[in-house]
Design brief:
Structural class: alpha+beta
Distance between the termini: 31 Å
Radius of gyration: 17 Å
Oligomer: single chain
Number of strands: 13
Shape: globular
Strand content: 25-35%
C-alpha cells in the first residue's frame, strides 16, 4: 500500500529482496519473477538513523500486509520474507507477492507480468523495443503484438528486474545487466521487458 511505500522512503525502512531463489542478496531495489509470475520484491535502504527501530518497522509492514490480505480475501497474497540489518546499517526487506496484480494493488505502482497477448487483452499499449543482441533490431509496437506468446514485464519504477528466462527486447531507458537481469532507469514512465 502507498502508506507503507512512504514509510520506507522516509527512512523508516529499507528493503532488499533475495530475488527468487538466487541464493544471494541483491544490492539495489529489485523485483524478481518466478516462472509462475510470483513476485519477490527487495528494497535496499540506509537504516543508520539512531531513532530507526527494526522491530517497529517489521510490525508496521506486517500490519499493512494483514490489512491488504484481508481486503484481497487471501491470507497469502502478500507475505513478509526476510528482514536483515547489516553491520553497515543497510536494511534489506523481502516481500513476496502471489502475482504482479497484488504487487500493483499493494504498492500502487504499475507492474504487469504475463504474455504479450495477455497484456494486450488487459489494455496495455506497446512501444517500440530494441533487440538486446548485437544486431540492434528494433521492433515496432505492431511487431511486439506478433510476439503474443512471449512473456513481458511492464513497470514504472526505477529498479532492477530479474526474469526466469532470457531477455530479448527492452524499451528505451532499460539497461541489460545480464541475460535475465535488466534495470529500468526511467522512474515514473512505463518500461517494457520482453523475454523468452
Amino acid at each position: 500500500m502507498r502508506k507503507l511505500r512512504t514509510v520506507l522512503l522516509l527512512g523508516c525502512m529499507a528493503s532488499f529482496i533475495c530475488a527468487c531463489g538466487l541464493g544471494s542478496k541483491v544490492d539495489t531495489n529489485t523485483v524478481a519473477f518466478d516462472k509462475n509470475g510470483e513476485v519477490t520484491e527487495t528494497i535496499v535502504e540506509d537504516f543508520s538513523q539512531p531513532y530507526y527501530d527494526i522491530e517497529e518497522l517489521k510490525t508496521d509492514i506486517q500490519t499493512e500486509i494483514s490489512q491488504y490480505n484481508a481486503k484481497a480475501g487471501s491470507e497469502d497474497a502478500v507475505e513478509l520474507g526476510d528482514v536483515e540489518l547489516t553491520d553497515e546499517k543497510v536494511i534489506y526487506v523481502e516481500m513476496e507477492f502471489k502475482s504482479s496484480a497484488d504487487y500493483k494493488a499493494f504498492n500502487e505502482k504499475e507492474l504487469f507480468w504475463g504474455t504479450v497477448a495477455e497484456a494486450y487483452g488487459a489494455g496495455y499499449e506497446f512501444t517500440s523495443m530494441r533487440d538486446v543482441s548485437q544486431e540492434g533490431i528494433v521492433l515496432s509496437a505492431k511487431d511486439v503484438l506478433e510476439k503474443g506468446d512471449m512473456h513481458i514485464v511492464i513497470l514504472e519504477e526505477a529498479q532492477q528486474v530479474i526474469v526466469p528466462g532470457k531477455i530479448a527486447y527492452t524499451s528505451d531507458g532499460v539497461s541489460l545487466v545480464e541475460e535475465s537481469r535488466a534495470v529500468n532507469l526511467n522512474d515514473g514512465q512505463k518500461a517494457f521487458i520482453l523475454y523468452e
